[in-house]
Amino acid sequence: MGKSRAKLRNWKNNSHNPSKKKGKVVNLKPRKKREKKRRRNGGRPCLLSYIRSIADLDLAHRNIFVHGLGWDVTREALVEAFSPFGKVEECKIVLDKVTNRPKGYGFVLFSTRAAAVKALKEPQKKIGNRLACCQLASVGPVTSSSNSADIALRRIYVSNVHPDVSREKLKSFLC
């Protein structure tokens, strides 16, 4: 029992702290080089890169909900609008079951989380001839804080109105 206590005492005093080892001065600063070397040698990756790789696998961090799309928007147009931000893995425009026309919203799945973050830095994008808004799909509905975005989302286009109809009559019909 005396030997094991001596070993424990020795461990406490010297072995867990490399800078206290007798006769050796250990430089603790070049940590990044050691981590890169460990990764190159097939060792375990550092914890942060491991967490990032797990987050990249999660669909909730890569799936973007896009609303405000026009009825003439195609899948190709949506992919073209989001491809500058990164590789688009999947793109889906939600269609009306009866008319088989787009409902005005869709989903874009990026291959990496970083590409999705890049796309969300500018939440409003011009897709086709309309201004569409996007957000992370897992977040759910978010109210817009900017007043100009709120006005843009409330604006509608009414066609085939007779020129003799007054502004008040049209306003009373819509309200």
From TrEMBL:
Organism domain of life: Eukaryota
Residue ranges of every copy of the RRM domain listed in the record: 62-163
SUPFAM superfamilies hit by this protein: RNA-binding domain, RBD
Keywords per UniProt: RNA-binding
Gene3D superfamilies: 3.30.70.330
Pfam family, one: RRM_1
Gene Ontology terms, MF aspect: RNA binding
Record's compositionally biased regions (Basic residues): 1-10, 18-41
Keyword RNA-binding appears in the UniProt entry: yes
Alphabetized InterPro entries for the sequence: Nucleotide-bd_a/b_plait_sf, RBD_domain_sf, RNA-binding_reg, RRM_dom
SMART domains: RRM
Example of a GO cellular component annotation carried by this entry: nucleus
Region described as Disordered: spans on this chain: 1-41
Record-given protein name: RRM domain-containing protein
